[in-house]
Design goal:
This protein is mostly helical. The protein has helices at residues 13-35, 37-58.
Length: 59
């Protein structure tokens, strides 16, 4: 049993970021079709602000 090598766990970060990007694209597209471009831009700025605050909090 000690001769077996431990398997490395798969890196799920790349898959999670890709999945998040794809979901954000269709959500932005639906918001754009329903309400126009301005709410999409406001939502993008809001998400950017939240990410920046989270980054500052973690550092």
């Amino acid at each position: 049993m000690h001769d077996q090598k431990l398997r490395r766990t798969p890196d799920l970060l790349a898959a999670a970021v890709t999945f998040l990007g794809i979901n954000m694209m269709w959500i932005f597209f639906v918001v754009w079709m329903l309400y126009g471009l301005v709410p999409v831009l406001v939502l993008a700025v809001l998400i950017n602000h939240v990410i920046t605050r989270l980054e500052q909090h973690l550092n």
